[in-house]
Amino acid sequence: MVSQMGLAIFLMLKIAESSNNKKSVDNDDNNDESNKEDDEDSTKKRKAQDKLPSSMKNKSKLSTAEEYPVGYRRSLQGIEFITSTDFMDSESSKSALNQIMEAIKVVNMIGLHGMPGVGKTTLAKEVGKHGREQKLFDKVVMFTMSQNPDINKIQHKVAAMFDLKFQTDIEDTRAEELFRSMQGMNKILVIVHDLWEEFKLESIGIPFGDDHKGCKILLTTPQQQVCSKMKCQKEIQLDILSKDEAWVLFRDQAALEDDCSILNEVAKEVAGECKGLPLAIVTVAKALKGEGLDGWKAANQIQGLKAFGL
Hints:
InterPro entries: Apaf_helical, NB-ARC, P-loop_NTPase, Plant_NBS-LRR
Helix content: 40-55%
Number of strands: 5
Shape: elongated
Structural class: alpha/beta
Number of helices: 12
Radius of gyration: 23 Å
CATH architecture of the largest domain: 3-Layer(aba) Sandwich
Distance between the termini: 8 Å
Organism: Gossypium stocksii
Pfam family, one: NB-ARC
Number of domains: 2
CATH topology of the largest domain: Rossmann fold
GO molecular function: ADP binding; ATP binding
Order of helices and strands: HHHHEHEHHEEHEHHHH
Keywords: ATP-binding, Nucleotide-binding, Plant defense, Signal
């Protein structure tokens, strides 16, 4: 069964390709009838795909569900366009932001968890923005771990923010140099983005706790258990948008009028398939922005669980 995240993220962007690449499985009984139905279904999907707005056809070529299975996340590629200026004051995001800003004053490590696409990246950037504006920190550092972190790349990215030039190519020695450099700054916020499993931040060179009480860690992860394993002193869950919040965001991103038109009724059905995930909502809405009623109907026609053969 495809998860909510998988459906929402890949639904509108990858359906054109995934439906073409999907192989049918024939039953031993009634093979002829089954094949006939499959052919008719494939023909309908091809016709719907031909009607798909060109903007969404182009989007679907970015990557396929086969290349990036459900649960896989690339680093920040594809989501960097959602910056802190796109922060939405949903009930969940406002609550999470307030909790983080309060906790960051009294604890060293905070864990923000929620399904991919729910807005952890945007919220983390907003925390960094608030931290700078309120002069809570002398330096705000953010890097992405993902499932296969490149420690060398991360070390050099962090070092550059402290104007540190490493004197060695040895990873452990670089960690020591970075550790000492960061200890020399009083107040630091380190945002560890997209952490998938327990990880020793000391191996990068990040000092915290007794080694540097002024260094605060905010980590984001799709899995709550990662927060526990990392011994976060405060765990915060970021939930999906409510139905009304999701529609307001979708309508704004697609530049739709606030009325009861037929187009809006179709658009609401499309928005509903994004399952309240801001990343899916923004991506889909922007792809369909400027389309007429036929374009929206075509997009709505090929969406849903039937398109995935479920």
